[in-house]
Design brief:
There is one protein chain. This protein is mainly beta. The chain contains one helix and eight strands, in the order E-E-E-E-E-E-H-E-E. The strands form three sheets. The chain has a four-stranded mixed beta sheet with strand order 1-6-7-8, with no helix packed on it. Strands 2-3 form a two-stranded antiparallel sheet.
Length: about 110
Amino acid sequence: MKIMKWMNLTPHAINVVEEDGSPVATFPKSGIVARRKQFLNFVANIGGVDTYASTFGEVEGLPPQHAGTGLIVSGIVRAARPERGDLYQPGRLIRDEEGNPIGCVGLSQ
């Protein structure tokens, strides 16, 4: 699929940068968020710390495919819908000298 435009379905802006942190593109949040509800099931208390097993519900908020539009979603949403060739997640995280995230290197499928 040839991507002509991008739509960010995460709850925050996505900054794409080069390896050195130089900006490439910023995708503002669209106001639509695709997500999977997380359920925590208590497993045991180990040394005073409760532990849980996580399970995830179905994907919510994902619009239908539109030719030429790439959708930026979280990795957990993309993994839940492998048949969707229009879903991309942020690439490898890049941090500044203080360890703060500044962006990602590209987008991944």
